[in-house]
Amino acid sequence: MLLTRTTPALPLGLLRSRGVLTEVADRHLAFTEEEYRTLLRLCGHDPHQLGDTATPVASTHGWSAAMRLLAEHHGDTRAAHQLMVLLDDYVRTEVLGALEPDQLALLSDLAALDALTPESAAGVSGRPDAWSRLSELASSGVPVRWLDAGTAELNPVLRRSLTARLTTGATPQDRQHGRRVVEWLRSSGQGLAAVERLLAEGEEEAAVTALGEELLPRLHSDTAVLDALLDQLSHRPDWRVAMMRGYLRLVHTRDTDPATALGTVEALLTGPGTRRSPLQRALLDAYRLQLDRCTNYRLGTAGPDTLGSEQAPAREPGETVRLQHVVTAALRSEQALWRLHHGELEAAHATARQAATLAGLAGVPWLQGRARATDSFALALLGEYRQARESAVAAFGTARDGGEGEQATVELAHLAESWMRMEGSDLTGARQHLERVTARPPRPDTTPLTVYLDVMLTALGDGREASDRVDAFRQGDPTLTPFQRSLITVAAFRADLLADRLAEAQEEVDLLEAIGFPNQQVVVDLARARILARAGREDEAVELLRPYLHERPSLSVRNAIGVMSTLTVAADRAGYADIAESARVRWHVASERVGLEVDRSRAARMMRRLLAAEVELSPAERHVLEHLDSDLLLATVAERLYISTNTLKTHLRHLYRKLGVNGRDAAVERARALGLL
Predict the structure, then answer these.
(1) What is the pLDDT of residue 659?
(2) pLDDT-based confidence at 673, cuts 50/70/90?
(3) Do residue 532 and residue 583 come from a single domain?
(4) Buried b (16+ CB within 10 A) or exposed e, 628-656
(5) Which of residues 611, 635, 662 is at a domain's end?
(6) Percent helix / strand / coil, the chain, rounded to 5
(7) Phi, psi (degrees; rounded to nearest 5) at 460
(8) Does one domain contain both 53 and 91?
(9) Which of 262, 281, 480, 505 has the least C-beta neighbours within 10 A?
(10) CB atoms inside a 10 Å sphere around CB 59
(11) Which domain holds residue 64?
(12) Using CA atoms, how far apart are residues 569 and 530, in angstroms rounded to an integer?
């Protein structure tokens, strides 16, 4: 009946006796669409005005009796209605009429689900033997379609008839059945279907609670369904509904005003009966932090409450472990982002790791990806490049199969990759990852980071252009956290320094010191030392950085590489061999620990560029220097350069004098330090 592709499972004589069918095809075979179109033409319809013929065939599975009925009345909606009346009457009299009350009750329970398995049949009916009893009913003529050995579905007409007979929630038995269905749907991962069921039964309070558990896991994958469900709840003056609507709009509506969204929820929190459980308060804190982040923390919602205890919020009766994981992951993720944008990098790393673990337990891939991306950028800024890359790769893997929304959540991982590739002198790769972010619509919280990386990358090729980009960004008077302001100031300093604008670079250092960001003194001292070294005052640079050789507690890897690379070159030029060697050892140890090639690092390249300006070699001297960095004998070098041995010796004397060394090996080492090789 509607599902078979051969003989319809109902008495054809019954249809004839009621005057509905007067002729049935001899073999009762299912019609194809082409056969149906042929039938329409035989019934006198214009072959050029048949319209949609695929839908009737699909909806009736080509059942020949239905095809003939529809063909005779093609284009007349009354024919479809007449067919459904016929089928409903057949189900009521021929199928359900012969069943025992217990059998009818079982089918009514099973009609709640589209597809049935042994587990779901037992779950929604409360009968362990439901599956075997369904098999018995099917063998006695109840229309059931077996999709495979463990999956079946009731005939759609039968299901409609069964559900129409139900008096939803009218009796204790009905309510108990409704609870079983909802519990099964939620436990089997069909949370939104459970919400729809609750709304259909008028259980709005339970629907709001269930939807709160499903919102974040399905925020990017089921947007339309979430929106439709929230529309059905829009009449409720409920802060939870307003918050869920706000979450949805923040992600999918670009012109959403965070202040208005926050005000809407806050206004509903002041009414009577607004007691909130710890989990509800935690979700509200996460929402406030996200709204604040959308303004780059201009709203100022963060405080001891929103950034407080590291303990997971407690569950109350009726709240699931999954909800606890989801809410705690959302809160930890926003806390990690706040700490990242405020320069608390170690804390951001630890909190992001917690968020990623909880999101994984809750099965929320996009939230897990965002936490891993946050972790990767915090680690990159700390200089922990091995761990940062692991987190970035994990974030990309989480978002790989997702849509646009999931891809946007891992932007920080692209920024981390951009930073790490720049540090390793892979400037092309760094620019590619940066452009993956800048190609998307700008966000207030990530824009300062993209500007920072863009300026740093540009400065390596054109310091003046990089400086102009900083000026253009600052003219917009952006809202920045102190940490973001310090990053932009460092980028401006690097641009001015590499453009040989030492006075402007000094102004940026003074500004950096005035910002007064905690633990920023090492960055200030490093910047001042680089200006001194660039100005030829290496002794003063060494004096400024020398205390960091024995600094306790130890520097972060990133700062250690910057300080020790600068101190190595400055001390070497100033003649402090012991200091240079100690700094070189610490520089190499720090770089090797995080997988950074010393000779290719950005810090080394920058210092070489700054200190190599005074060493001007002729083209011939450069050719000689390049051949010194080999195992070739001097006589062989002279042959390859097509010069005499005496001419080669003359070039070597000039070369050694300019480099301030006395031999071949020392010349090669010195040239490497100065970036000439």
Answers:
(1) 80
(2) low
(3) yes
(4) bbeeeeeeebbeebebeeeebeebbeebb
(5) 611
(6) 70, 0, 30
(7) -70, -20
(8) yes
(9) 281
(10) 15
(11) 12-95
(12) 10
For residues 116 and 153, is the Cβ–Cβ distance under 8 A? yes
63 shares its domain with 89: yes
Interval 481-507: pLDDT, tens: 999 999 999 999 999 988 889 999 999
CA dihedral for 18, 20, 26, 32, sign (positive or negative): negative
Per the structure, how many domains does the chain have? 3
d(CA 360, CA 328): 12
Pick from 611, 628, 652: which residue ends a domain?
611
State yes or no: pLDDT of 4 exceeds 50: no
The tokens for 447 are 């824009």
The answer to whether 226 touches 248, Cβ cutoff 8 Å, is yes
Per-residue confidence (pLDDT) for residue 80, from 0 to 100: 60
Q: What is the mean pLDDT of residues 470-490?
A: 94
Looking at residue 659, which CATH number applies to its domain?
1.10.10.10
Q: Are 352 and 387 in contact (CB under 8 A)?
A: no
The b-or-e profile of 22-35 (16+ CB within 10 A means b, else e) is eebeeeeebbeeeb
pLDDT digits (tens, 9 = 90+) for 162-215: 877 655 556 777 778 888 888 888 888 889 999 998 998 888 999 999 999 999
Alpha helices, DSSP H only, in 476-576? 482-498, 502-515, 521-534, 538-545, 557-574
Token pair listed for 360: 């994984």
Residue 404: inside a domain: no
Are the C-beta atoms of residues 329 and 362 closer than 8 Å to each other? yes
Q: Is the pLDDT of residue 9 over 60?
A: no
User: Is residue 540 included in any domain, yes or no?
Assistant: yes
Spatial separation of the C-alpha atoms in residues 214 and 517, rounded to whole Å: 40
569-582 confidence digits (pLDDT tens): 889 888 899 999 99
Q: Are 595 and 566 in a shared domain?
A: yes
Residue 64 falls within a domain, yes or no? yes
Same domain? For 629 and 603 the reply is no
Q: Is residue 101 part of a domain?
A: no
**Closest alpha carbon to 215 in 182, 252, 180:** 252
Residues in the chain: 677
Residue linked to tokens 């709005």: 204
- As given in the structure block, the two tokens for residue 315 are 């569950």
In this structure, the answer to whether residues 525 and 597 fall within a common structural domain is yes
Token digits for 354?
A: 């917690």
